[in-house]
Design a protein that fits this description.
Number of strands: 11
Largest sheet: 7 strands, mixed
Strand content: over 45%
Length: 117
């Protein structure tokens, strides 16, 4: 059974930092592209950051320079370090694991990030 479990969400003041973690089980983790997505109320889900099996990263323009995605294949985990948080970063953040070239795509349950003073 495949599971992706996020942790690290919560309430933070503007300008603050948070680190999200996503622990995966039931997949050959190193073969998957990992992504963090977010969905704010009334908006479509959007890609925040992505990291390939080879460690290549890409980011949404809105988070470049503030967020950093990383992965630890020894721990089957992917992380999102979020700095200089803004109110517009408020959303439910979900991790995704995708095996390119297959239909295998798995999602975590999501974790709420609220940026507010």
């Amino acid at each position: 059974q495949v599971q992706l479990v996020e942790s690290g969400g919560g309430l933070v003041q503007p300008g603050g930092s948070l680190r999200l973690s996503c622990a995966a089980s039931g997949i050959t983790f190193r073969l998957y592209v990992l992504g963090w997505y977010r969905q704010a109320p009334g908006k479509q889900r959007e890609l925040v950051a992505r990291i390939t099996s080879g460690g290549i990263t890409n980011y949404a323009d809105s988070v470049k320079g503030r967020f950093t995605i990383s992965r630890d294949n020894t721990k089957n985990a992917v992380y999102l370090q979020m700095n200089s948080l803004k109110r517009e970063d408020t959303a439910v953040y979900s991790c995704n694991a995708e095996r390119i070239g297959t239909l295998r795509s798995y999602w975590g349950q999501g974790t709420q990030i609220t940026v507010s003073s």
